[in-house]
Structure formats: structure tokens, C-alpha cells
């Protein structure tokens, strides 16, 4: 046993332990948020603090020795870290998916790849790369965008279309004329393109990346319609999307608490009237609190209902399938609306880069450009409710 192992805290094993450690990190994240923006990534020492808090291991199944937190518990952790800094919360949502992916990889390969549980997987799931079939696997090439957390990742997951002898390879069942899969590649085989200069979420390091003619063994590929591990609510096809609303919820809560504390302690210099007695302050904060409460309950309520049904082996009804992505979308848009109204409420007190409201405004504006906050989600949910054709079936948990 080394001196380092004697001083390193034992890995957390429960949701309560992980959440407590996440809460302890909040002041650190808040204090260093400006540094994250300047670096355009999370510093390695902060990533290590997050590893030590257990946030990247929280989705690993019990068979791997993981804590296997529920989706609700995982979202609470993401929300907590986002209260400290949006980029840290965003990278937690991305990196913690490693444990989810492990259940879609055949057992021996998964255990070899994920011998440690605090590993970060980053990457883009949409099939924009090219994977040529070769004996034993594939040769993968491509450029992917928005690789959040790729700068501190251990594995990189990337979607690609499959080719055989230079021609599109159809799916085995013949339903798709051009099959695609997801490919897991060690970070050392990936070249990061340093192009993450953005309005917000600047600390997430969501750079483009390239992979050039890298051999990927068959056993390091996956598809969400094939579960190799024990089926559970975490092996549903859309499980990797569930925790993302924790980011906007955490930011909105941080902004509300920040502004309320200011209003409670300020006095109008011209009239001597406390801000707490100002009608505009009172009604704006009350409206924002109402919107936050409704949005947060929508996210957690739909997730809990889904989790209970999946745990009991019951099907998720169409209405709930549609409600889940809609609740996520609503959390993004509501958080942006709340932060914008609070920014306006504080007037010139909001505009300085040294203050958090400026950062929260930029962070919520940027995160609302994500696919899960776009009208494509509305179309998919609406089409599903009407028996039409959703454009983005996976957000509804549909793979076939």
C-alpha cells in the first residue's frame, strides 16, 4: 500500500456520498469558473477532484462494482455541480455516461476497457464518420464536432456509417440501407482540434476532434438496440439523455439564489426603500420561482414515473415517452428565460464579466442551442403523440 493510497479518500459507494462530495465541490467550482472560461476547458486538478467525488462512476452497474445510481440521483448530482459552474455540470453529464455505455459492450471487453470506474468518455454519437469493415473490426476515420470533455477524457465514443469494400453496408436485418454503429477509441488515438471559442459553456472544452484510420475491434463497438449487460432502467435507449436537464436547473437555481440575496440586502439610494419592498423585485422573483418550480417538478416527476414503470418491467406509455424529452426541453428554455429576466432586473449590475449573471446568461444561451432544446424535439414528441413520424426517434427511447 502506497502513501498516496493511504491519503486518498475511499471511493464513494452510495448516492448520498456522491451527492455530498458534489456539494462540497460547489464553492471550488464557483471560485474558479472564470479560470475555466479562460482555459476553455476544465483544469486537470479540477477533473481529478470530480473523479474523487465519484461523479464519473455513478452510472456503472453493480456488476462492475459501481454504485448504479438511478437517473434521478444522477441528475441531482449534475444539478448540484451546475449550481457551482455550468461547464463542470455539463462535463459531468457527458463523462458519467461511461457506465451506461458499459452495458452495451460485451462483458469481457467492457471489463477490460473499464477496469477503473472513474473513467471519462466523451464524443459525438451521430454517425458522421466512416468505418470500413476489416477482419476483426473496423478502420475508423472522420471529424466530429462538440466533443464536450474530450480534453480530459479517457475514451472517445463516435458514431460512423459502415462500409464494406468501399460501399455502404446495410443493416443485418435489411431495414437500413446504410448501417451505423458507435465506436470506442482510446483518447490517445484522437486528435483534438482547438476550436472551442464560444459564447458560453466555455469551460467544457467541447472541441472538434479527428480520428484517422484507427483500427477499432468489433468488441469495442456498440448499438443502443443491443444490451449485453443486465437489463435495467439504465439500459433504455435514451438513458444517456436523462441527466442533461440538471445543467439548466442548476444554473437557474444559482441565479435565483444570487439575485434574491442581493435584493434582500440592498436599499434604494435615492428613496431609502429596501429593494425587498420593491414591487418589481417581488413580482419578478416570484414569477421566476414559479417557473423554476414547475420546470423542475416536470423533469423529476416524469423521470420518476418512467423509472417506476421500467423497474416494474412495464411499458412506458406514449404520453410519458413524449413528456420526457419535452420536460428536458422546457428546463433549458425556462432556465434561459429566468436568467434573462434576472439579468434585466439587476440592470447595470448584471453586465460586468466579473459577476456571475453575465456568465449564466451566456451559458444558458449557449446550452439552448443544443439539439435537445430545439424544435426538432417538439416535432418528435408531437408526431409521436399523433401517431406520425418523429424526426428524432431516439429522444423518445425508440430504436426500431
UniProtKB/TrEMBL annotation:
It comes from the Bacteria. Gene3D superfamilies: Acyl-CoA dehydrogenase/oxidase, N-terminal domain, Butyryl-CoA Dehydrogenase, subunit A, domain 2, Butyryl-CoA Dehydrogenase, subunit A, domain 3. Keywords: Oxidoreductase. This is Acyl-CoA dehydrogenase family protein. Residues 29-97 form the Acyl-CoA dehydrogenase/oxidase N-terminal domain. Residues 247-374 form the Acyl-CoA dehydrogenase C-terminal domain.
Amino acid at each position: 500500500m502506497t502513501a498516496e493510497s493511504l491519503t486518498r479518500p475511499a471511493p464513494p459507494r452510495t448516492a448520498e456520498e456522491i451527492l455530498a462530495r458534489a456539494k462540497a465541490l460547489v464553492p471550488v467550482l464557483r471560485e474558479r469558473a472564470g479560470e475555466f472560461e479562460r482555459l476553455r476547458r476544465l483544469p486537470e486538478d479540477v477533473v481529478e477532484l470530480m473523479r474523487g467525488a465519484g461523479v464519473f462512476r455513478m452510472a456503472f452497474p453493480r456488476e462492475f462494482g459501481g454504485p448504479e445510481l438511478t437517473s434521478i440521483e444522477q441528475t441531482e448530482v449534475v444539478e448540484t455541480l451546475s449550481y457551482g459552474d455550468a461547464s463542470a455540470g455539463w462535463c459531468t453529464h457527458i463523462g458519467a455516461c461511461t457506465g451506461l455505455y458499459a452495458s452495451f459492450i460485451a462483458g469481457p471487453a467492457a471489463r477490460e476497457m473499464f477496469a477503473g470506474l472513474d473513467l471519462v468518455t466523451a464524443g459525438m454519437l451521430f454517425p458522421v464518420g466512416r468505418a470500413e469493415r476489416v477482419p476483426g473490426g473496423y478502420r475508423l476515420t472522420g471529424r466530429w464536432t462538440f466533443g464536450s470533455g474530450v480534453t480530459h477524457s479517457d475514451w472517445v465514443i463516435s458514431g460512423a456509417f459502415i462500409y464494406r469494400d468501399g460501399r455502404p453496408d446495410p443493416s443485418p436485418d435489411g431495414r437500413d440501407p446504410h448501417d451505423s454503429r458507435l465506436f470506442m477509441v482510446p483518447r490517445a488515438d484522437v486528435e483534438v482540434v482547438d476550436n472551442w471559442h464560444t459564447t458560453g459553456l466555455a469551460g467544457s472544452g467541447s472541441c472538434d476532434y479527428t480520428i484517422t484510420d484507427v483500427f477499432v475491434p468489433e468488441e469495442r463497438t456498440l448499438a443502443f438496440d443491443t444490451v449485453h449487460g443486465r437489463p435495467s432502467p439504465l439500459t433504455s435507449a435514451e438513458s444517456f439523455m436523462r441527466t442533461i436537464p440538471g445543467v439548466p436547473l442548476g444554473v437557474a437555481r444559482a441565479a435565483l439564489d444570487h439575485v434574491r440575496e442581493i435584493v434582500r440586502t440592498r436599499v434604494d439610494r435615492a428613496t431609502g426603500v429596501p429593494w425587498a419592498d420593491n414591487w418589481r423585485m417581488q413580482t419578478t422573483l416570484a414569477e421566476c420561482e414559479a417557473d423554476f418550480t414547475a420546470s423542475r417538478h416536470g423533469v423529476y416527476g416524469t423521470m420518476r414515473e418512467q423509472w417506476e414503470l421500467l423497474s416494474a418491467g412495464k411499458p412506458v406509455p406514449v404520453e410519458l415517452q413524449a413528456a420526457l424529452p419535452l420536460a428536458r426541453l422546457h428546463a433549458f428554455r425556462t432556465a434561459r428565460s429566468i436568467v434573462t429576466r434576472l439579468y434585466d432586473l439587476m440592470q447595470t449590475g448584471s453586465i460586468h464579466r466579473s459577476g456571475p449573471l453575465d456568465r449564466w446568461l451566456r451559458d444558458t444561451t449557449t446550452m439552448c442551442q443544443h439539439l435537445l432544446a430545439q424544435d426538432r424535439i417538439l416535432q418528435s414528441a408531437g408526431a409521436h403523440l399523433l401517431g406520425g413520424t418523429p424526426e428524432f426517434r431516439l429522444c423518445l427511447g425508440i430504436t426500431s
